[in-house]
Amino acid sequence: MEQLLQQIEAYRQEIGSLTPDNAESLEAYRIKFLGTKGIVKNLFNEMKNVPTDKKKEFGLILNEFKQFAESSYEDWKIRGSSLNGQSTASDLDLTLPGDPLRPGSRHPISLVRNEIVHIFGRLGFSVAEGPEIEDDWHNFTALNLPEDHPARDMQDTFYIHQHPDWLLRTHTSSVQARVMERQKPPIRIICPGRVYRNETISARAHCFFHQTEGLYVDENVSFADLKQTLYFFVQEMFGKDVRVRFRPSYFPFTEPSAEMDINCRICGGVGCPVCKHTGWVEILGSGMVHPKMLENFGIDSNKYTGFAFGMGIERICQLKYRINDLRLYSQNDTRFLKQFIPAL
Ligand code: DAH
């Protein structure tokens, strides 16, 4: 045992004095010390000759030596490949060109959202945001949709188990409520964002999608302003030849209310599955802000009027880029996404 320990110490000093600086000497070291018939292996074979009561102590020293021999080898290998330009212990060729970094593209939803923000920005609308986890008041009640109101049926959503008053917002109209509660007229905002509904996922429905809300409250805001603003928007978005029509509708937070259609951008109005062969596609809901809404937020409805609208971003995308399946937006399929590189 004593003799073995002296031997190990001698090997340790030998390794300490070595500086293998090329692939051959490093390989020679590996074979001599770490190879299958090398010194470390042989020392382990000696274990059987060590008296039982000394085995533990010898084992510890031997293991430590093995680690020292191995880590010295690894150190030299790393140093060799980084110091010498040419390959030494390693086969790394640092002169090889790197893997190409392919440019990404913006998501079509982001492209369209940015364009909407830009168009309304030119009309003086600024962007407002609100939380995606909303409370009942901002998403429903403040918008004239009290509990048990039948219009809530169309907007079933996901509720937070531990906090039944909280839900995933069903529309961006909740941001109208948040803005009116902290800001007094004049208000001119658009609110892009993600919304949620409890819907079965299909080509035409999804449990989440995107909307942009718009709100303009000031003195003397009229329905004519609403029509002209939205007409300007679709002309900028789809081209000057776009045709629009307003249909009377109902929303609890606007009175009167209207839905706006544009002539189908897919078939040009002749009729196709997207426009359900009518030649027209609905793109948004709108109306004059209900006086009760204004009063809910302490805004004098005798002095101020306003208009509001809400549109689905996916629908605008569908008409602009001919995307016929809502699921494509969230599948992260690069064959779909890379088609938008030229749209940047
Ligand atoms: N929040 C409505 C929806 O999700 C859309 C909408 C309609 C928003 C009329 C409005 C509006 O601001 O005035 O179906």
What is the compact description of this entry?
The chain is α+β, with helices and mostly antiparallel strands and 344 residues long. The protein is built from 11 helices and 10 strands. Strands 1-5-6-10-9-8-7 form a 7-stranded mixed sheet, sandwiched between helices.
Structural class of the secondary structure composition?
alpha+beta
Instruction: Give average pLDDT, whole number.
Output: 92
Number of DSSP-assigned strands: 10
Strand order of the largest sheet: 1-5-6-10-9-8-7
Content of β-strand: 15-25%
Overall geometry? elongated
Note the run of SSEs as H and E: HHHHHEEHEEHEEHEEEHEHH
* Major sheet description: 7 strands, mixed
Give a list of the ligands: 3,4-dihydroxyphenylalanine
Q: Report the helical percentage.
A: 25-40%
Q: Indicate the radius of gyration in whole angstroms.
A: 36 Å
- In the predicted model, the low-confidence regions spanning at least 5 consecutive residues are none
**Helical element count?**
11
Amino-to-carboxy terminus distance: 75 Å
Describe it:
This protein has 344 residues and is of the alpha+beta class. The protein is 38% helix and 20% strand. It has eleven helices and ten strands. The chain has helices at 2-17, 23-34, 39-46, 52-83, 108-122, 136-139, 173-182, 223-238, 291-296, 313-321, 334-337; strands at residues 126-127, 133-135, 159-160, 163-168, 187-196, 208-218, 244-251, 254-263, 280-289, 305-312. It has a seven-stranded mixed sheet, sandwiched between helices. Strands 2-4-3 form a three-stranded antiparallel sheet. The protein is elongated. The chain starts with a helix and ends in a 7-residue tail after the last helix. Bound molecules: 3,4-dihydroxyphenylalanine (DAH). The site of 3,4-dihydroxyphenylalanine has 11 residues, from strand 9 and strand 10. 3,4-dihydroxyphenylalanine binds next to strand 9 and strand 10.
